[in-house]
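Our consortium's second objective concerns turning raw sequence data into structural hypotheses that experimental partners can test. To show how far this objective has progressed, the report includes one record in full. It was chosen at random from the queue rather than selected for favorable results. The single chain below, 980 residues long, was entered without modification.
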Amino acid sequence: MSRILNHRMRSSLRRPSWSCVDKRAVAFSVWTGRSVLLHKPLESYQIPRRRYGMLIARAVRGVLKIRYLLLGGAVGGGMTLNKKYVEWKDGLPEMGWLNDLLPDNEQWDKFTTTLLDAKEKIGDQFQIVGVPLTLSIHSDPRLREAGVARAAELREWLAQRYEDAVAAAAVNNATSRIEPAPKIVNNLQSRPAPMSAKSNTDETAAYERRVHALQEEVLSLQARYQRELQRLEQENRELRQQNMLLRQGRQPSTKKMKRSLIDMYSSVLDELADWDSGEAGRLPRVVVVGDQSAGKTSVLEMLAQARIFPRGAGEMCTRAPVKVTLSEGPYHVAQFNDSSREFDLNKEADLADLRKEVDLRMRNSVRGGRTVSSQQIAMSVKGPGIPRMVLVDLPGVISTQTVDMASDTREAIKEMTKQYMDNPNAIILCIQDGSVDAERSNVTDLVSSCDPSGKRTIFVLTKVDLAEENLANPNRIRRILEGKLFPMKALGYYAVVTGRSRKDDSIQSIREYEERFFRSSKLFKDGMVAAGQVTTRNLALGVAECFWRMVRDSVEQQADAFKAMRFNLESEWKNTFPRQRELDRDELFERARAELLDKSAELSGVPAAAWEARLQNALWAAAAQRIFSGIYLPAAAHASEDVDMHVLLQVKYKHPKSGDTPQIWLDPFDIDFNKFNTSVDIKLREWAENELATLSIKAGRQALREEFSELMSKSSDSDAIYEPVKKAAVDEALSRHQWEERAQDVLRVLQVNALQDRCVASRGDWDSAVSLMEDALKERLKTTEEDLKSLAGPGFRERWLYWQSSSEEQNRRSEVKSELERLGSSRPNLSYDEVVAVRDNLRRRGVDADNEYIRETWKPIYLKQFLQRALSRARDCRKSFYLYTQQNGTGKECCEVVMFWRVQSALRTTANALRQQIGNREAGRLDRELREVLDEMSSDADMKKKLLSGRRVELAEELKRVRQVQEKLEEFIEALNKEK
């Protein structure tokens, strides 16, 4: 029984109830218009009356629910629509345009009102299922069809709006980095509500067509923006690559960058700007010449279509040649060849900055009291409709120079003008002021001397408006333009008007004035001047045509000339420097820089013992003279002033082996030991407090120099041609290098403390001090003997063996020296009686010498004797360390050794401190100074030319320049042939 009940319950759970099936079937039938369950019209399907009340209640509830959703979405944003809107807003950069896609409140109200009216007209039987709205209408089939069509329309409208929104969001996301997305207009806002099924169908079809067109427009816009984005990304990658090359110190490849034909030609002329190669390098260019204030600059500005040059009130404006490369481009801009800034010629602020820059460059080129300069200023001007050519604007020829000009100004301008016009391929643009008398012209004679046949001269008559106004006979202007007045010939004659004496006139206004003038001019009306001879527009066309014709006729010949020059230079290099690579001046300098920086880095690897040994030697070399002349000898002289006889000092000591006590008699020297020690203490302290620290810094710098020189000399593969650069850089870096200021204070404290120590602690220190004393005495004794030899002349041995003779003065000194040696005095200063005795003895021998002469001769003799006795005492003191230790350092016999020990200890301490300072700070500071010096030298072409000279360098430089010019010429010729 239980099994049966369970089976029935499971069957009832698996089988859906009639009401569920009924609801699904009715809903689907209303949506599709057919019955799924019974396969017959919905009108024949009857709903039991007992459920009418429940269905009506559900319908009312559904209508209210739909109204709530629609009105809530229109007023505050429905939950579903609001959620979708929030998702779009989070995913898109700008979502304000969605407000135009959504229907406004008025449309929502109209739509809900239509639904309510339809509900009231339906009758007593209908059913509402879900959203979107679906109606099952029994009373009127036409109303049912209208409701179904309306529901289908609403569903399609929502789906289409969703697709449009997604497409627009994708377009906006892809193009937001380029430009703001275009505003999409909601075409549904003007769409009227359908009144019938037929009209609804037509409107739906029209709406779909409009949406289709909108989608195609959006897709095409997206594709265009995508192509633009790819182009910009490609340019960005190229710019990043060029920036990376520049940071690495390399120039980006210009072959990959497409350049205009005139820019390529201008770069060749830039290479030949300072070239002095005879017939080679004579490439065509337009040379603008004329008298001062004749209008040269104004003509050039009319060709460039911008006011690019400064103006002057009666004074010379053009002080240096200005090379202007004119070319056509999309934007009207100007740029100097050595600068990256572009001046927008359509902006007055940029024009003012450009004129200031031109004036500044001109004034910088004429420093040193000059009025004009041959230093060329190169710039380029690009713009729509500008003819392609290269012009050189020269200073105006003057007949009289004022007092504020240099004395050679007039001749310098003439020489410069002739130099440019002597180029057989140069086009001479001769500018003549038409408002002045022809007899006042200076430039026509120069032009006729350089181009007597007139095959490359174009004559331009400026200020024709003033000439016509001032001249009573216009026939004079006609004769000028026919070439019958000036003693010169030309290819063509042009008449132009380049201004109305107003600084603020624009190029366009001047052109309009020029055209109006020639249209109303008597010259033109009466047929005195041809139409092709007037206006700067015709002048530009004529000059450009002549320029390119001459370029095509001569560029091949110039390329062949440079090819032959290159072959000759390469042959000379192979024969003169067969196993060496062709390194120009810049490459040689970079190699020298690399070697210097490598050696500078090796300073940190020098062992401490080597540093201290070098520093001690440098310190002793710097201090030896001061120690002898300022401390040791004055202290000894001061201590021996009051001593009249030798002091015999008997010293007893115990022999280490036999134990007996022998008697050793020492005769140290005739000085007072107490006075000597006191004087040494005073002088050592003064030396340490005032001089020793500064002297130590100088010695440290000298040690740095010596160590650097040794490191450079150890490089076996170093080229001798680098040596001037290395030496100059190291000398300049060392001269700039300043030791740290606080280092002197530290050294001073250490040195004062070391000099106060009078106790020699070990036998090794004692022997080291004795050795220092002996070496110092021997060196000083050798110098003193040489001085005596130069005073007294060669001795007997030199005279007989080397045939050396003495002068009269040397013989006199020799007699005085012999007499003083026989005197046998031990005083540093001779007494009066001793001097008188020597003088009398000399007079008896026929030698005349005064007292001062005798005393002057005695000084080196006494110094020699003193050094000999001191050297003997130093040898004796080498064996006295035991006696010194027995006396606990209070003995005075070897106080000289103690003094040298104190000096040696101070120098050792100083060397150790200097070595630490060099390793910790000074080597790094010197390296920075060296880098700065090298950077300055790398940018100074004159310095590099001075330090790196010789035929090897000059030949490599010529080869480099010839190759560069030849490569650029070949590239230009290839592009020129393609243009043909």
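The partners drew two points from this record. The CA atoms of residues 343 and 350 lie 5 Å apart. The mean pLDDT is 75. Both points have been shared with the crystallography group to help prioritize constructs.
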